[in-house]
């Protein structure tokens, strides 16, 4: 399978309580409230400063001699729940964020290989926080996937 197939299958992941899923071709420049909570597929880091201290081996060939030929990719699946600075405040959005995080892993657990696109189940690191998308900061969570794909 290809990296493109894995990205498409990730964008198709159905997560309970998430209103909109956006693949790489459809990530909007801006979101409005009716689109939230939303999941955005973003190959690479989501901001200028890295969210995660450990950099994956993205786009590095691991084995191109004997045996299986694989490539490791790093992808961010960004969950945006609500804009920062609303009258309700941070504490009001935390229960919804936590519920969406639980629902995310339930959905991923039902499709560990993303429809056969991955050679092994994704390794996922989680970082809840505040994330900038367009000109707006959102309460959300970054799911950093590390994938091994056979080529």
Question: How would you describe this structure to a colleague?
Answer:
The chain is built from 2 helices and 6 strands. It is α+β, with helices and mostly antiparallel strands and 151 residues long. Strands 1, 2, 3, 4, 5 and 6 form a 6-stranded mixed β-sheet that branches. Strand 5 and strand 6 form a beta hairpin. It is elongated, with a radius of gyration of 16 Å. The model is unreliable at 56-62 (pLDDT under 50).
Give the structure's gist in a few sentences.
The protein is of the alpha+beta class. Helices cover 19% and strands 35% of the residues.
List keywords for this structure.
single chain; 151 residues; alpha+beta; six-stranded mixed β-sheet; 2 helices; 6 strands; elongated
Q: What is the helix fraction of residues, given as a range? A: 10-25%
Which structural class do the helices and strands define? Answer: alpha+beta
Count of β-strands? 6
Global shape: elongated
Radius of gyration: 16 Å
Give the distance, in angstroms, between the N- and C-terminal Cα atoms.
7 Å
Average pLDDT level: 86
Tally of DSSP helical segments: 2
Main sheet, how many strands, which sense, barrel? 6 strands, mixed
Strand content: 35-45%
- Low-confidence stretches at least 5 residues in length (pLDDT < 50)? 56-62
């Amino acid at each position: 399978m290809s990296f493109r197939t894995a990205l498409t299958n990730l964008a198709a992941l159905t997560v309970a309580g998430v209103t909109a899923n956006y693949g790489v071709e459809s990530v909007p420049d801006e979101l409005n409230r009716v689109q939230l909570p939303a999941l955005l597929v973003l190959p690479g880091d989501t901001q200028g400063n890295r969210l995660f201290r450990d950099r994956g081996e993205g786009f590095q060939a691991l084995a191109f001699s004997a045996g299986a030929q694989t490539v490791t990719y790093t992808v961010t699946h960004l969950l945006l729940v609500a804009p920062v600075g609303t009258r309700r405040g941070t504490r009001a959005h935390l229960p919804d964020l936590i519920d969406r995080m639980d629902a995310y892993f339930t959905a991923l657990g039902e499709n560990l290989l993303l429809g056969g696109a991955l050679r092994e189940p994704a390794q996922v690191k989680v970082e809840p926080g505040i994330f900038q998308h367009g000109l707006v900061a959102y309460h959300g969570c970054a799911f950093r996937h590390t994938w091994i794909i056979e080529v």
